[in-house]
Write the structure tokens for this entry.
Amino acid sequence: MQPRIEIRAAGEGDVAFIFAMIRALAEYERSPESVLGSEELLRDALFGERPHAEALVAELDAQPVGFAVFHGTFSTWHCRPGIWLEDFYVMPEHRRFGIGERLFRQVAAIAVQRGCSRLSWTALDWNTPALNFYGKMGAQALDEWTNHRLSGDQLLAVAGSA
Amino acid sequence: MQPRIEIRAAGEGDVAFIFAMIRALAEYERSPESVLGSEELLRDALFGERPHAEALVAELDAQPVGFAVFHGTFSTWHCRPGIWLEDFYVMPEHRRFGIGERLFRQVAAIAVQRGCSRLSWTALDWNTPALNFYGKMGAQALDEWTNHRLSGDQLLAVAGSA
């Protein structure tokens, strides 16, 4: 029998699954200690009064096996919105049947539907399976740029003398 | 006389100035051909019905000399919102008096006011003055990650088979 794959928008009932997957992805990315959030914060961020992101869930035979979390961006060069894919993951034991590709293509389709000029994300330099997949999708690697970040006490210190 | 520096939210009257600065920054970044937007698109994106980004303007003695454009993000690890600084620029002839630092600190202060856990941005690897400034601000360089992007025909192709 053919496996039944469905990609759908996440609902509040998916929060526990998505948070578990965020943990699983962080472990794969060798940063389990970086997960400082909680299901409650995630619920509020996705389904609260002022959502900060959206999520998709991938189902295999009616069981959730993968997810994507994304939010809007803006390109000054294009003066148009874009989408940033923050997390994208399929459970390793279910990586067949092209579930990840279906999920990724759905995010791209949402970007196009919304008039976005770009779909962007970041990938770890040692994550060869992911880099191969993104290459296959025709993605451009922005090798000349390095992301920077202020957080925690550093962010407070810089903000404090504004 | 002390120079008078003011950092303020941009208004619709600043759109022409901001678009000129987007061009100037793109030239400095050796990508003038990448500016495909227009003042009209920028006005709609910043001040239309559904804004995609916000902007600040830096004034020196009541003349605009710099700008910042930013939008919201979301961290799955923190389950909290963040701010992405898309563009940040002060006209070269006015780079004194710490105008850029005031502008940058104001963006950080907005991030803290909004309960963000991160302020993020990307910088060109050869832009030494910028990298030095970000280092002075205590920023962390995410060397292990590379940004990727789908746009134009590649984005349409991936979306098309969703």
Observations:
- The mean pLDDT of chain A is 95.
